[in-house]
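Entry for the shared binder. Reason: the reviewer on the internal report wants the predicted structure included alongside the sequence.
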Amino acid sequence: MGPMTFQSDLTTVAFSRRKLMGRNRALSVLLGLSDLLSQSKGVSGLLNQALDYVLEHTAFDAGRIYLMEPDRQALRLAAYRGLDVAGLERVSLDEGFTGRAAKTCSFIAQSVQALGDAKRAELLASKGIHTVVCVPFVVLDRVEGVMNLAAKSPIRLDQDEVDLLMMIGHLIGVAAIHSETEEILRDIVEELQHRNETIKLFVSTVGHDLKGPAVAAYGFAKRLQERYAGVLDERGVLYCEQILKATRQIACMVDELNSFVRTREMTLQVQRLSVSALWESLRQEFSTEFTKRSLRWEEHAQVAEVTADEVMVLRALRNLVQNALAHGGPSLSTIRVGCEEREGFFVFWVADDGRGIPVEEHEKLFQPFARLKTSQGVEGSGLGLTIVREVAHRHGGEAWVRSEPGKGAVFFFSVAKATGAECRCAPEGGVNMFKKILFPVDFSDVSAKIVPVVREMAARFDASVHVLFVARVFEHLGSIYVPHPSIKTIQAELAEGAQRKLGEFLAQHFQGVAVEGRVVSGDPAEEILKYADSQGIDLIVMGTHGRKGFERIVFGSVAERVVKGAVVPVMTVNPYGEKARWGR
């Protein structure tokens, strides 16, 4: 085939494996092997299938694959076909052609008759083997294994064939490394999950078994102090004070541990929040303390509303105000709270004019149980700022501080604008979690009202949108004497109308968005789950009608069933209640 000349700016060449095989056998073989190796099967399964593929597409009749041991002193057998491997399960780098190929990073081909080991040559010849080839697996200039191939008849090996076998070895070596790494990571993840469950059980046990006795001890000590104050001497009064302080600390620690676990585990209840309402809540909560200490309270906000979990955001803000009150020192006179808008994020901050924090201690602040030099003599669990950071992470943001000794401190935490989606991406960028978003619709006002949320999520994660309408089936109407042909006619007309309506819906609401529409028939919840599974959906966003009472009994909740059955995150939005919930 001669060179191709393209006469236009756009040339389309249809791909055909069959034609590729005719034009370029080597590329075709490598393409097929690459496809095979891309499938995750574990190291053993991968290497056995790879060896089968090589034997099928070459003139060889048998083979073995060895992988380098961790100490790189020997090779271990990982796969074989067509030959007895007794005594060959492990090969030293100083042993035979296999070891030499690995040690010298060389392709070796030899006829059996020319083998230096007469006993080995006789054994191979008795099995009908004529030629032996050793192909090293060279990855990043290191040998990761060797493939031995044996042929029962003479074969011709030109440079092109040698290059092809070396490329085959390279691909198998890369795949083996990746597969081994994947298995190691899977084991690590399982171990971490087990440890995480153990920690959760421990914290739960501590929360249940430790707080009760601590509260009881506090109560008895308090009663002793009040009833027998006149009887106790100075040392007895001091002992009571120490017991009260210690039990308060235990109860506080347990509460903070439970709060930390809840912050990490609880489902985000995302909704629109009024910033002024957040300030009002904080102001009322701390008014007595501010009045008692003659402190000034200032509020600043560049935005009126944010989208986040109210309980979590209030907890973070409360912890920061408490932190300022506890660590501000005698110079503290003013606490300011604020919220501003930055690219992709809302940023909350709490500032004080207290003693400040040395720069070298900033990195420790958000670590669990961190107690700084400036914290000596101040009660606390050491988890308050850790919870702030966790709240930020749950909302796709981060937490940080700006402070110097004598100049006060400003603590910040950010919340991603994308409806508080739970992701771990920093303000400067991150990995896109959701590449495919499923948006089930029913063409009601609810669907139209949720479109901005879906578009925002798609823009945020650079995701494609799948819009799905499920036409309910009517087979149950047979019980009220509607002929089946009529039911089928109705369903066909509904499906046709739905397809037309879907096209109009997409044209009206999803211009400029990568979108795909589909109409299916069946039970809505079941079809939504089925579609999500078949299309590899990463996130489901759907509306709820907020039905209650009799309506809920009659119509049921499709969203609730989807949340319970989905294996991917589900965001449900009630536009009338202006509230979004995360499932899973």
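Summary line for the report: The radius of gyration is 34 Å.
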